[in-house]
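Illustration: Ly6/PLAUR domain-containing protein 1-like.
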Amino acid sequence: MLLLIFATLFGVLLNAGDALQIQCYQCEEMKQNDCSTPEYIVNCTVNVQDMCQKEVLVKPDGIHYRKSCASSGACLISSSGYQQFCTGRVNSVCISCCNTPLCNGPRRKRPTPSAATSNRPSLVLFLTFLLLPLLPVT
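Result:
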């Protein structure tokens, strides 16, 4: 029983340092430039701004971009509120939300899973099953 408690606490401690912070592109009213270069990258406020937002405005003089960090509630409300105005024509406004690092930048191919991906849940599960046979049977 003691080992099971130890393994559980070990798993909790492994995840204790994880902060919910992402990076997003941020710019205001950029014309013809979608501001997806390194100088526009910002760190979003930890545990508050948990999404990236992208606004695409079609104006008579061309396409304008607005990008920022956002809270999930505010972003989802604004994107659903503007859905009817997202036509792609002049005076169109399209707002999208996403929750992965730099996801409000240019569209990219989907990344393939790599060894660098966090394996903490797998490690905790592995340790638990490794230590289970060591528990005394009552």
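Reading the tokens back as a structure: Confidence is low (pLDDT under 50) at residues 1-17, 115-132.
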